[in-house]
Write a structure and sequence with these properties.
By secondary structure, the chain is mostly helical. The protein is built from eight helices and no strands. Helix 5 runs antiparallel to helix 6.
Length: about 160
């Protein structure tokens, strides 16, 4: 009897994980199709468990969704992903911070734009960081550069989150 219960539990866990993977894949397909509402619905459970790709997709979806747009929630998820060195989240996070009322918003915008250019080849050729830099007040550039150095040191031996 105990063996049957163990087998049943093992099968349940395996089948549940296949179902979850299906939701993840469906969420990515919805995200790729710009069906942001469905992407949020399918991927948020994975984002809550720390999956950096899901965090990026959920944050991006909240940032650009016509019916679920929420800059604060977008910033939360993009930051969670960027903190894990998810480079695709860094550029949108910089755009989200820029000009917002968040504390040190332009410092954070510049910092994330610079890190995006450092770790994401697509961001190297954008002018976002140059534009943001022109809005920094005296002392803010040095503050941003100090934070950039902290992240680069922290991530030195950390693989990119993919």
């Amino acid at each position: 009897m105990r063996k049957k219960i163990t087998v049943f539990l093992l099968m349940f866990v395996v089948l549940k994980s296949f179902g979850q993977q299906g939701d993840f894949d469906k969420g990515l397909i919805a995200f790729g199709s710009k069906n942001f509402k469905e992407a949020i619905s399918k991927l948020r459970p994975f984002a809550e468990k720390g999956n950096c790709i899901a965090q990026f997709a959920v944050g991006f979806s909240y940032m650009y969704s016509a019916d679920s747009q929420n800059d604060t929630t977008a910033r939360h998820w993009l930051l969670m992903a960027a903190e894990q060195k998810q480079s695709a989240a860094m550029g949108p996070l910089a755009a989200n911070y820029f000009g917002s009322i968040a504390e040190d918003a332009n410092v954070k915008a510049y910092m994330w734009a610079m890190l995006a250019a450092e770790y994401d080849a697509r961001q190297k050729f954008t002018t976002t960081r140059v534009l943001i830099k022109s809005y920094l007040k005296p002392g803010e550039l040095q503050k941003a550069e100090a934070i950039i150095k902290i992240y680069k040191d922290k991530w030195k031996d950390t693989p990119d989150c993919k």
